[in-house]
Amino acid sequence: MARTPVKYYVVDAFTESAFKGNPAAVCLLEEDRDEQWLQAVAAEFNLSETCYLTRISDSSSHTPRFRLRWFTPVSEVKLCGHATLASAYTLFTAGLVNSNIIEFDTLSGILTAKKDPDFKAPTDVPQIQNGEEHQHCFSVELDFPTVPNTEFNSTEVSAISKALNGAAIIDIKRTTPFDDLLVVLSSSKSVTELQPQIDDIRKCTGEGIIVSGAAPPESGFDFASRCFFPKYGIDEDPVTGSAHCALAPYWSQKLGKCDFIAYQASARGGILSLHLDERNQRVLLRGKAVTVMEGTLMV
Predict the structure, then answer these.
(1) Is the pTM of this model over 0.85?
(2) Catalytic site residues?
(3) Which residues sit opposite 103 in a β-bridge?
(4) CATH among 3.40.50.1980, 3.10.310.10, 3.40.50.720, 1.10.287.1120 for 149-270
(5) Positive or negative, the Cα torsion across 166, 167, 173, 175?
(6) pLDDT tens profile 34-55
(7) CATH code for the structural domain at 6-145+287-297
(8) 78 with 178: CB under 8 angstroms?
(9) Looking at residue 132, what is its pLDDT?
(10) Quick check: helix, strand or coil at residue 85?
(11) Alpha helices of the chain — where are they, by DSSP H?
């Protein structure tokens, strides 16, 4: 029996300009596919994330609910922000839901996404000035769990410093349960100018390295970051929503606030608006997106 063709969209997330932010492939499944196929398609797209949406028709809630899974080119992951934003944006703009709220059933529990009034992003960042403005004037707000930071007492500080090309390290934390390293540098300028040694990062403890630094007030941002996950087949992730579930609690303690405008200083660049809900240990991530491609998988 022939397989049902799979409709897909490629969406740039956490940006309002095409070919910026972080691209994700969003695949709409009408029938089950095996793990080998899911991983093979993700390897074929070779983006930081390919995700799969399956409508859950027997949901007891009036809110549309979809099963959502995320795959890098080499493995499935438990949490991904930009592909969740891309999924919600696709469902909203393609007319696949009649609601301003969507629920996703994921390996990290039930996550929600909703249409959100625009936030005003800084306009003086060179990386985001190129490209056409997108056609849909709304943001997507994601409701994600916080990712706790714990103390890092390893003897591997010298190895981490070597991997970051001798950058001056101010602080190191370990995230749980994802086991990434959160490395804080002296400033956002140090983050932007960092020239990491990817092979050395691959040898470091933990799954990946999140680098961050405070931004000057005149920039319009509170902090900047970059993220490196070579063990997942992603040397540098352009914009990492899930990393900000750890960054928001960290910078809340340092800056004494719960609302942030964050910039991920990769070559593509991306902007996130964040709110830390300390009482419920949730992070609200807001961002925009642009659909740049759509097509059909015939296999």
Answers:
(1) yes
(2) 49
(3) 65, 112
(4) 3.10.310.10
(5) negative
(6) 999 999 999 999 999 999 999 9
(7) 3.10.310.10
(8) yes
(9) 40
(10) helix
(11) 35-45, 81-93, 157-163, 188-193, 198-203, 244-255
